[in-house]
Amino acid sequence: MFSSLDEVAEKKEMLDGMIDSEFDGTGWWRRGWVPFLANGGGDFLCVDVSAEDGGEPGQLVAFWHDWEDRSVKFPSFEAWVRELADSMETGTLKLT
């Protein structure tokens, strides 16, 4: 689901605040990530504005609340929008 701007700010502030306490500096969350899609279960697709762990700024990273995988799902927001539009045009939905 798309998050409202208020939800994005709220979730980002909450997760940024958990870096030193809950996440204990383990790389579970990065300050450069901005969560813009949510599944309602604490998982997000995030724009990585700083690429602190490598890659390119602007890549989209998956954040799973209970799994340490932080894989890059799309190389850019543009690539994600392109795949979304293609899926809408063809009537398919790719869950990646």
Task: List the main descriptive attributes of the protein structure presented here.
96 residues; alpha+beta; 4 strands; 28% helix; 2 helices; globular
Overview of this structure, please?
This protein has 96 residues and is an alpha+beta fold. It has one domain (5-90). The chain has two helices and four strands. The protein has helices at residues 5-17, 77-90; strands spanning 33-38, 44-48, 59-63, 72-74. Strands 1-2-3-4 form a four-stranded antiparallel β-sheet. It is globular. The protein starts with a helix and ends in a 6-residue tail after the last helix. The model has no long low-confidence stretch (mean pLDDT 91).
Count of separate DSSP helical elements: 2
Largest sheet: 4 strands, antiparallel
Helix and strand string, N-terminal first? HEEEEH
- Evaluate the radius of gyration: 14 Å
Strand order of the largest sheet: 1-2-3-4
- Tell me the β content: 15-25%
Number of domains: 1
Whole-number mean pLDDT: 91
Number of strands: 4
Secondary-structure content class: alpha+beta
Overall spatial form: globular
Distance between the termini: 14 Å
The helix fraction, in percent, is 25-40%
